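Sample A.
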Amino acid sequence: MNSFYITILITTYNCASYLKQAINSILYQSYENFELLIIDDGSDDNTSEIINIYKDYRIRYKKINHCGRSQALNYGLSIAKYDWISLMDADDIAHPLRLEKQISLLSGNENEICFTDAAFFKKDKLRFIIENEFGSKAIHEVLTLHGHFTNSTFLFNKNYIKKFGGYNESLKVYEDYDLWLRIKDKSEFIFVHEILQFQRIREGSLTNLNRNHLNEKFYEIQEPYYQDLKSSFSILEVDEQNQVIGWREFFYGNKNLCRYYWKKIKITKWDYKMLLAYLISFFPAAFVIQFNKLRVRLRLEYLFDKRKKFKGLDKEFRKLLKDVSR
């Protein structure tokens, strides 16, 4: 097995309620060659008290003035002890084999970027799963509309990321997606096709607040790349371009424009997802936003398909949750 020393980087802001579970899940990793670097972005809760309970020499804690996640991440990269960085959200739970599985696939090339599949949970129940199953689609195509990858499974070389300017500190949201778009052309993406991260669904989390504003920011980040889909994402066919532009408008922009672009495509080239989205686009904007936010398709997939495919995962998760809560 490859041997790398890595820095596991957690940035946290007023997340004390969940931090213990996140830290324990890292300390329970089968792979032990790491430091756990926790950047406290100016929390005013009892974050420091929780961290100071731990006496593990691998934990390094730095508290800074509140500046936002992008700056906190860049600061973490600047003081990380090791070149290889594994991100971890302060309210998530890592599977005990996550680091071991990811590191086993690295060859050590600086441009390697590794992700795993993830399950999303609320309280003690799994709600849906995101798998990195792209089939014949290229990574460039996948990144046209969403981040798709679970950022808290991101494993990368800090020197490579720094070459692209690190995280955009002018962004308060979606700094991860912005980074992936900037690095996509020169990166080698590696995926571990296993559920190795459990991501918490929280009503008060940043990505569940002010959905209109979040959609506008996502749309803005994408704008330079949508000027030329051919060069940005290697989408050559006009119908494919109209399809992608339509989906972008459906998720983040103008529903009238969504229908405008899709009407340019022969109906024989539509799939059921486009047809359903086209019908939903006539509903009030608030309904469409709520529909997208609830991840209805992913929840139904899990209930009727993936729950069977990942038989035993619920039980495994509940046991892990119990272990990391001690």
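Sample B, a different protein:
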Amino acid sequence: MPEFIDQLKRKVVLSSSPVRIISLVPSQTELLYDLGLREEVIGITKFCIHPEEWFRAKPRVGGTKKINFEKIQALKPDLIIGNKEENDQSQIEELMKHYPVWMSDIKNLDDALNMIEEIGELVNKKNEAIEISEEVRLRFDNLKLRTLNLKQPSVAYLIWQDPLITIGSDTFIHDMLSRCAFTNVFSDQKRYPEIKKEDLKRHQPELILLSSEPYPFKEKHREEFQSICPRSTVLLVDGELFSWYGSRLLKSPGYFHSLVNKIR
């Protein structure tokens, strides 16, 4: 029987090449689509909005952190794909008692590229996965060349409002910021720390980036933060392109380059 090692260093044993796959992570759901799978993916979450045709048609098994076990049982999966950060540990551990569960653990671009290739092997789409990962790496390498000698502006990246939450240095978003040649003013923090508006005033970041997800910041919020830090450039940004670590990464370098040009 095929054996694989996931990104938590766990052995995952499959009875055969999987044909009934449930994805519990939006960015990995989109990856499965872009790898060319169609009928094999039988369940997704309510947050798996890409591709739209799957979002409308595929059975939903709850959210990323609130899984519906009865729906999963009814679908009889032969593989479930999750993520350490995005899914609830206790729920994943319960699923592991009954199904093969492959888990990713993503903190930077290299982790993401490894995940893409490892999932490709897992679902018998190795060549397609390598093609995607190599193209992503090439585009990020080109972005690095374009930003190599640029000044690195200080930035605060906000993902939630009330409480105000930013990102620390051990996150995938932090790695994406560094690839834009941005310096995270909260890099001394870990994970997703709560901050106060006074912290923003104290740091006086040159940029304040308001993400479109998980909290949907709007123009009214941009104006609010602009009044808090008048000397900062405050922008609304596409959170998917900073935080989705599947095949959507193909679009991130181009978006980052446009963003860098916009502020200089």
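Observation for Sample B: The chain has eleven helices and twelve strands.
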